[in-house]
Specification:
With about 280 residues, the chain is α/β, with parallel strands linked by helices. It has 2 domains: about 210 residues, 3-Layer(aba) Sandwich (Rossmann fold); about 60 residues, no CATH class. It is about 30% helix and about 25% strand. The strands form 3 sheets. Strands 6-7-8-3-9-10 form a 6-stranded mixed β-sheet, with helices on both faces. Strands 2-1-4-5 form a 4-stranded antiparallel β-sheet, with no helix packed on it. A hairpin with an 8-residue loop joins strand 1 and strand 2. The chain is globular and about 65 Å long.
Protein backbone atom coordinates (compact mmCIF):
# COMPACT_ATOMS: atom_id res chain seq x y z
CA UNK A 1 0.00 0.00 0.00
CA UNK A 2 2.73 2.52 0.99
CA UNK A 3 6.08 2.25 -0.71
CA UNK A 4 8.92 4.64 0.07
CA UNK A 5 12.18 4.29 -1.85
CA UNK A 6 15.46 6.17 -1.36
CA UNK A 7 13.61 9.18 0.04
CA UNK A 8 15.43 12.33 1.12
CA UNK A 9 13.81 15.33 2.76
CA UNK A 10 14.71 18.51 4.64
CA UNK A 11 12.86 21.73 5.39
CA UNK A 12 15.93 23.80 4.49
CA UNK A 13 18.88 23.25 2.16
CA UNK A 14 21.25 22.85 5.09
CA UNK A 15 18.99 20.49 7.04
CA UNK A 16 18.44 16.82 6.21
CA UNK A 17 15.71 15.03 8.13
CA UNK A 18 15.42 11.90 5.98
CA UNK A 19 18.28 10.50 3.93
CA UNK A 20 17.67 7.49 1.65
CA UNK A 21 14.68 6.36 3.73
CA UNK A 22 13.18 2.99 2.78
CA UNK A 23 9.81 1.69 4.00
CA UNK A 24 7.06 -0.62 2.79
CA UNK A 25 3.68 -0.94 4.51
CA UNK A 26 1.10 -3.60 3.66
CA UNK A 27 -2.71 -3.12 3.68
CA UNK A 28 -4.98 -4.27 6.49
CA UNK A 29 -2.86 -3.15 9.45
CA UNK A 30 -2.95 -0.51 12.18
CA UNK A 31 0.66 0.66 12.16
CA UNK A 32 2.06 2.41 15.20
CA UNK A 33 4.62 5.05 14.25
CA UNK A 34 6.44 5.76 17.50
CA UNK A 35 9.14 8.25 18.31
CA UNK A 36 10.20 11.10 20.54
CA UNK A 37 9.14 14.67 19.84
CA UNK A 38 11.06 15.93 16.83
CA UNK A 39 11.93 12.46 15.54
CA UNK A 40 10.25 13.07 12.17
CA UNK A 41 6.89 11.29 12.68
CA UNK A 42 4.67 14.18 11.58
CA UNK A 43 6.88 14.97 8.60
CA UNK A 44 6.75 11.35 7.44
CA UNK A 45 2.94 11.41 7.58
CA UNK A 46 2.94 14.63 5.55
CA UNK A 47 5.24 13.07 2.95
CA UNK A 48 2.88 10.10 2.63
CA UNK A 49 -0.11 12.46 2.31
CA UNK A 50 1.69 14.54 -0.32
CA UNK A 51 1.61 17.69 1.81
CA UNK A 52 5.39 18.15 1.64
CA UNK A 53 7.65 17.13 -1.22
CA UNK A 54 10.84 15.07 -0.94
CA UNK A 55 14.14 16.27 -2.38
CA UNK A 56 14.80 12.87 -3.86
CA UNK A 57 13.37 9.39 -3.99
CA UNK A 58 9.70 8.54 -4.21
CA UNK A 59 6.64 7.83 -2.07
CA UNK A 60 3.74 5.87 -3.54
CA UNK A 61 0.35 4.99 -2.05
CA UNK A 62 -1.66 2.35 -3.90
CA UNK A 63 0.57 3.00 -6.90
CA UNK A 64 -0.04 6.77 -6.90
CA UNK A 65 2.88 9.14 -6.37
CA UNK A 66 1.93 11.13 -3.28
CA UNK A 67 3.44 14.44 -4.32
CA UNK A 68 1.19 14.64 -7.42
CA UNK A 69 -1.98 14.59 -5.26
CA UNK A 70 -4.27 13.51 -8.08
CA UNK A 71 -8.01 13.14 -7.25
CA UNK A 72 -7.97 9.32 -7.34
CA UNK A 73 -5.26 9.42 -4.65
CA UNK A 74 -6.90 12.11 -2.51
CA UNK A 75 -10.31 10.41 -2.33
CA UNK A 76 -8.76 7.33 -0.74
CA UNK A 77 -6.54 8.94 1.90
CA UNK A 78 -7.51 10.92 5.00
CA UNK A 79 -5.04 12.80 7.20
CA UNK A 80 -6.07 13.82 10.74
CA UNK A 81 -3.38 16.25 11.98
CA UNK A 82 -2.45 16.99 15.57
CA UNK A 83 -2.92 20.72 15.03
CA UNK A 84 -5.96 21.92 13.13
CA UNK A 85 -8.46 24.74 12.66
CA UNK A 86 -12.15 24.02 12.24
CA UNK A 87 -14.43 26.60 10.61
CA UNK A 88 -17.31 28.37 12.36
CA UNK A 89 -19.99 26.17 10.79
CA UNK A 90 -22.32 23.48 12.09
CA UNK A 91 -21.39 19.82 11.97
CA UNK A 92 -23.99 18.93 9.33
CA UNK A 93 -22.70 21.74 7.08
CA UNK A 94 -19.10 20.54 7.35
CA UNK A 95 -20.24 17.02 6.37
CA UNK A 96 -22.28 18.23 3.38
CA UNK A 97 -19.34 20.31 2.11
CA UNK A 98 -16.57 17.74 2.57
CA UNK A 99 -18.14 14.28 2.26
CA UNK A 100 -18.48 14.52 -1.58
CA UNK A 101 -14.66 14.50 -1.89
CA UNK A 102 -14.70 10.85 -0.72
CA UNK A 103 -16.54 8.50 -3.08
CA UNK A 104 -17.03 5.85 -0.36
CA UNK A 105 -18.21 8.18 2.42
CA UNK A 106 -20.50 6.27 4.78
CA UNK A 107 -23.25 8.52 6.16
CA UNK A 108 -24.70 5.74 8.33
CA UNK A 109 -21.32 5.26 10.00
CA UNK A 110 -21.08 9.02 10.51
CA UNK A 111 -24.46 9.02 12.30
CA UNK A 112 -23.36 6.11 14.50
CA UNK A 113 -20.06 7.74 15.41
CA UNK A 114 -21.68 11.10 16.21
CA UNK A 115 -24.04 9.29 18.55
CA UNK A 116 -21.15 7.29 20.03
CA UNK A 117 -19.21 10.50 20.71
CA UNK A 118 -22.30 12.37 21.93
CA UNK A 119 -22.10 15.02 19.23
CA UNK A 120 -25.10 16.71 17.59
CA UNK A 121 -25.33 17.74 13.95
CA UNK A 122 -26.51 21.23 14.95
CA UNK A 123 -23.43 21.96 17.08
CA UNK A 124 -20.97 24.58 15.80
CA UNK A 125 -17.47 23.23 15.33
CA UNK A 126 -15.70 26.27 16.75
CA UNK A 127 -17.76 25.98 19.96
CA UNK A 128 -16.70 22.40 20.69
CA UNK A 129 -14.11 21.61 23.34
CA UNK A 130 -10.67 20.42 22.24
CA UNK A 131 -11.56 16.79 22.98
CA UNK A 132 -14.91 17.08 21.15
CA UNK A 133 -13.16 18.50 18.08
CA UNK A 134 -10.78 15.53 18.06
CA UNK A 135 -13.71 13.13 18.33
CA UNK A 136 -15.48 14.85 15.44
CA UNK A 137 -12.40 14.67 13.21
CA UNK A 138 -11.99 11.00 14.08
CA UNK A 139 -15.65 10.34 13.27
CA UNK A 140 -15.36 12.12 9.93
CA UNK A 141 -12.08 10.40 9.05
CA UNK A 142 -13.43 6.92 9.77
CA UNK A 143 -16.61 7.70 7.82
CA UNK A 144 -14.66 8.59 4.67
CA UNK A 145 -13.92 4.84 4.29
CA UNK A 146 -10.55 5.92 2.87
CA UNK A 147 -8.19 2.98 2.39
CA UNK A 148 -5.44 4.85 4.24
CA UNK A 149 -5.99 6.85 7.42
CA UNK A 150 -3.11 8.92 8.81
CA UNK A 151 -3.50 10.07 12.42
CA UNK A 152 -0.99 12.35 14.11
CA UNK A 153 -1.02 12.13 17.93
CA UNK A 154 -4.77 11.33 18.03
CA UNK A 155 -4.94 10.76 21.81
CA UNK A 156 -3.33 14.10 22.79
CA UNK A 157 -5.87 16.10 24.76
CA UNK A 158 -8.23 13.19 25.40
CA UNK A 159 -9.12 12.15 28.95
CA UNK A 160 -8.76 8.53 30.09
CA UNK A 161 -12.36 7.43 29.23
CA UNK A 162 -12.06 9.08 25.80
CA UNK A 163 -8.79 7.27 25.08
CA UNK A 164 -10.49 3.96 25.83
CA UNK A 165 -13.41 4.97 23.61
CA UNK A 166 -10.98 5.94 20.83
CA UNK A 167 -9.36 2.48 20.87
CA UNK A 168 -12.74 0.73 20.85
CA UNK A 169 -14.15 2.81 17.98
CA UNK A 170 -11.04 2.32 15.82
CA UNK A 171 -11.10 -1.45 16.31
CA UNK A 172 -14.84 -1.69 15.64
CA UNK A 173 -15.16 0.50 12.56
CA UNK A 174 -12.26 -0.44 10.28
CA UNK A 175 -12.71 -2.83 7.35
CA UNK A 176 -10.17 -5.36 6.04
CA UNK A 177 -9.15 -3.20 3.08
CA UNK A 178 -8.31 -0.20 5.26
CA UNK A 179 -4.97 0.63 6.85
CA UNK A 180 -4.11 3.13 9.56
CA UNK A 181 -0.83 4.78 10.48
CA UNK A 182 -1.01 6.28 13.97
CA UNK A 183 1.84 8.56 15.00
CA UNK A 184 2.36 8.93 18.74
CA UNK A 185 4.91 9.37 21.49
CA UNK A 186 2.36 8.30 24.13
CA UNK A 187 2.94 4.60 23.66
CA UNK A 188 0.80 3.29 26.50
CA UNK A 189 -2.35 4.88 25.04
CA UNK A 190 -2.27 2.59 22.00
CA UNK A 191 -0.47 -0.52 23.24
CA UNK A 192 -3.43 -2.85 22.69
CA UNK A 193 -4.35 -1.43 19.28
CA UNK A 194 -1.30 -1.00 17.06
CA UNK A 195 0.44 -3.80 15.15
CA UNK A 196 3.05 -3.68 13.55
CA UNK A 197 5.32 -1.32 15.48
CA UNK A 198 7.59 1.19 13.73
CA UNK A 199 10.02 3.29 15.76
CA UNK A 200 11.65 6.33 14.21
CA UNK A 201 14.48 8.37 15.68
CA UNK A 202 16.39 11.32 14.23
CA UNK A 203 14.78 10.79 10.84
CA UNK A 204 15.64 7.08 10.64
CA UNK A 205 13.52 3.97 11.03
CA UNK A 206 15.39 2.09 13.75
CA UNK A 207 12.85 -0.67 14.39
CA UNK A 208 9.98 -2.33 12.48
CA UNK A 209 8.39 -5.57 13.64
CA UNK A 210 4.93 -7.05 14.16
CA UNK A 211 3.75 -7.98 17.64
CA UNK A 212 3.93 -11.73 16.99
CA UNK A 213 7.56 -11.41 15.96
CA UNK A 214 8.35 -9.23 18.97
CA UNK A 215 6.88 -11.66 21.52
CA UNK A 216 8.53 -14.63 19.78
CA UNK A 217 11.99 -13.04 19.89
CA UNK A 218 11.83 -11.05 23.12
CA UNK A 219 10.74 -11.84 26.66
CA UNK A 220 9.37 -9.08 28.90
CA UNK A 221 9.95 -9.85 32.58
CA UNK A 222 10.40 -8.20 35.98
CA UNK A 223 13.67 -9.51 37.43
CA UNK A 224 14.31 -9.50 41.18
CA UNK A 225 17.97 -8.69 40.48
CA UNK A 226 20.39 -8.31 37.57
CA UNK A 227 22.78 -11.26 37.38
CA UNK A 228 25.95 -11.60 35.36
CA UNK A 229 24.83 -14.96 33.95
CA UNK A 230 21.53 -13.50 32.71
CA UNK A 231 22.15 -10.07 31.28
CA UNK A 232 19.05 -8.37 29.80
CA UNK A 233 19.05 -6.60 26.46
CA UNK A 234 17.62 -3.62 28.32
CA UNK A 235 16.31 -2.98 31.81
CA UNK A 236 15.03 -0.24 34.06
CA UNK A 237 14.87 0.15 37.81
CA UNK A 238 11.30 -0.15 39.11
CA UNK A 239 9.27 -0.82 42.21
CA UNK A 240 9.71 -4.42 43.30
CA UNK A 241 12.32 -5.31 40.71
CA UNK A 242 13.80 -4.53 37.30
CA UNK A 243 11.48 -4.46 34.25
CA UNK A 244 13.64 -6.05 31.56
CA UNK A 245 13.80 -7.20 27.95
CA UNK A 246 15.59 -10.49 27.38
CA UNK A 247 16.15 -12.79 24.38
CA UNK A 248 13.24 -15.24 24.36
CA UNK A 249 15.47 -18.33 24.31
CA UNK A 250 12.96 -20.53 26.15
CA UNK A 251 10.02 -19.29 24.03
CA UNK A 252 8.14 -17.92 27.01
CA UNK A 253 4.70 -16.43 26.45
CA UNK A 254 5.04 -12.94 27.93
CA UNK A 255 3.00 -9.79 27.41
CA UNK A 256 4.75 -7.09 25.40
CA UNK A 257 5.52 -3.93 27.37
CA UNK A 258 5.45 -1.32 24.60
CA UNK A 259 6.87 1.51 26.70
CA UNK A 260 9.77 -0.70 27.82
CA UNK A 261 10.35 -1.82 24.22
CA UNK A 262 10.32 1.77 23.00
CA UNK A 263 12.82 2.88 25.63
CA UNK A 264 15.03 -0.11 24.88
CA UNK A 265 15.04 0.48 21.13
CA UNK A 266 15.74 4.21 21.42
CA UNK A 267 18.50 3.51 23.97
CA UNK A 268 20.25 0.80 21.92
CA UNK A 269 18.54 -0.11 18.62
CA UNK A 270 21.41 -2.33 17.44
CA UNK A 271 21.28 -4.53 20.54
CA UNK A 272 17.48 -4.98 20.36
CA UNK A 273 17.46 -5.71 16.63
CA UNK A 274 20.20 -8.35 17.05
CA UNK A 275 17.73 -10.47 19.02
CA UNK A 276 15.59 -10.83 15.90
CA UNK A 277 18.55 -11.91 13.77
CA UNK A 278 19.39 -14.57 16.34
Amino acid sequence: MVQIENLSFGYTKKQTLFDQLEMQLEPGNIYGLLGRNGAGKTTLLKVIAGLVFPRGGICRVEGFESRKRIPAFLEDICFIPEEYHLPSIRIHRFISLNAPFYKRFDHEKMDWLLKEFQLLREQKLNQLSFGQKKKFLLAFGLSTSARLLLMDEPTNGLDIPSKSQFRRVIAASLTEDQSVIISTHQVRDLESLIDPIIIIDEGRIIFQQDVAGITASLSFEVLPEIRENRQPIYYEEGLGGFPAILPNIDQKDTRMDLELLFNGVVSNPKKVNQAFKA
